[in-house]
Amino acid sequence: xxxxLIAGNWKMYKTTAEAVAFAHEYKALxxxxxxxxxxxxxxxxxxxxxxxxxxxxxxxxxGAQNMHYEEEGAFxxxxxxxxxxxxxxxxxxxxxxxxxxxxxxxxxxxxxxLHTAFKHGIVPxxxxxxxxxxxxxxxxxxVVSEQIVADLVGIPYTDVERMVIAYEPVWAIGTGRTASPKxxxxxxxxxxxxxxxxxxxxxxxxxxxxxxxSVKPENAKxxxxxxxxxxxxxxxxxxxxxxxxxxxGS
Length: 250
Ligand code: 13P
Prior knowledge:
This protein is α/β, with parallel strands linked by helices and 250 residues long. It is 42% helix and 15% strand. The protein is globular, with a radius of gyration of 17 Å. It starts with a strand and ends with a helix. Bound molecules: 1,3-dihydroxyacetonephosphate.
């Protein structure tokens, strides 16, 4: 039985004071709730150290939203994996479509980041997903297949088994237009079959595959009820403690 991971992706929202206030409110609300899933918050870099402290003693794990693939160097404005590991970051979102779209992230850089994350004991949440134009012409499976194959080059099965892959159709992100549970399940199942092709069924049965894109308290239960969907990567609805808690308890 695979566990499910609900991860909030806060993107570029919240000051550190707001982040700490979220943590306290979430912890207070969660103390009266039954949450069977694993929970993580992927916050902006400047909030990570304060959140580590604020979430201490709770079951909430900490994630970053990006990292550089080099160990260190003259890369002004960048953050390395060892800097994140030092804070005690558990997860790092890698290859989010917003980074592919606005910051020229490629499958090659994504692949290098995955290698570096594993080296530092950080579990990557690898994001893949097609643009609307690709889905409209029926190319969504081939786009996602190409991403999976290129992003996982050289990653040993022992690492793939403990990573997270998030299917995030770009047309469903921040648009309120959620993929139907059937569309989300079909693609997550397809991603699992792609992993089977690369590493075999023992590995694909273990890899955690999330859905992301307009996940809300109202639709979380049905999405999380699909057999190949092992959790959710939640943007907008992870910013409010009560909404996020409802999704975590779904
Ligand atoms: P929304 O939940 O706001 O659509 O964002 C999804 C996402 O991009 C999570 O990484």
